[in-house]
Amino acid sequence: MIANNTASQQQNTVKTWQFKDLLVELYLYVPGPAELIPKHSHEEYQIGFTYDCTGGYFYRGTSYPVPPGSFSVIHTGEVHNTTRKTTQLEVYRTIWMLLIKPRLFEALVEELTERSTSLPFFQNPVITDSELTSRFLKFHSVVGMVGSQLEVECLKLDFVSLLLQRYADIPISPKPMFQEHKRVQMVREYLEEHLTENVSLESLAQLVGFSPFHLNRVFRQEVGLPPHHYQTQVRIERAKALIRKGLPLRLVASESGFTDVSHLTRHFKRFAQVTPGRYLPQK
């Protein structure tokens, strides 16, 4: 599902991760000459995030500066180019780009409004929003991690749906959700029984006849946690039980659904406030 391409650390680098309806690009610019990017367009929506630098675009007849910590939004098919040129960069720069297939926006708008409509348009091509940034940073923090498919998909939908609800030109009021105890319980049991598998949100949704977006919402409403968080909780409980049995951490990680000891440690410390090595069964 994920592809990752890198160049030399001494050169400008673009790392990429390809998903079904989303391409993620991470641009890492080293100090040195910086050139303008010529006019071009994409069949996808381009959502950029300038992490630690100032950018700028010429788009729909206007130049737009993009401050650090802001998003730029380019509509599908629109010609654009960069407007800021620095002859010599003195620091490293980091820019994230999301190229989102129009079908993802179409599906989410239909889910949220219960009607088919035209493609959404974003009137403001530059967005500064702390909650949107928080959701994006959670998404990009797991985007390259092996074994985190469910987490990546849930966080992707959280980010994209908030972007649509706050900034698309289509009035969006999420439809009410009804209680789905039986089908949510089926998903919980499946996650518990298949905790070592890299389960996708789409496969869980097919299991109970929901769309991935609806399952993500209704599971959170019923359980109080999103599906990926519940999966991690189940895995941590299994890891604790295996540690109490005296298994080495390498086996604990693999038998509780984590890719390696570092993956286990990162999540274990969040839940238990100590590393697995400091979780000490007493005899």
Please explain how this structure is put together:
By secondary structure, the chain is of the alpha+beta class. It has two domains: 13-167, Jelly Rolls (Sandwich); 182-283, Orthogonal Bundle (Arc Repressor Mutant, subunit A). Helices cover 40% and strands 17% of the residues. The protein has helices spanning 102-113, 130-142, 149-167, 181-193, 201-208, 212-223, 227-244, 249-255, 261-272; strands at 13-18, 22-29, 45-50, 55-59, 62-66, 70-74, 80-82, 93-100, 126-127. The strands form two sheets. A six-stranded antiparallel β-sheet has the order 1-2-8-3-6-9. A three-stranded antiparallel β-sheet has the order 5-4-7, with no helix packed on it. A hairpin with a 2-residue loop joins strand 4 (55-59) and strand 5 (62-66). Helix 7 (227-244) packs antiparallel against helix 8 (249-255).
Index terms:
single chain, alpha+beta, Jelly Rolls, Arc Repressor Mutant, subunit A, 2 domains, 6-stranded antiparallel β-sheet, 3-stranded antiparallel β-sheet, 9 helices, 9 strands, 40% helix, 17% strand, disordered N terminus
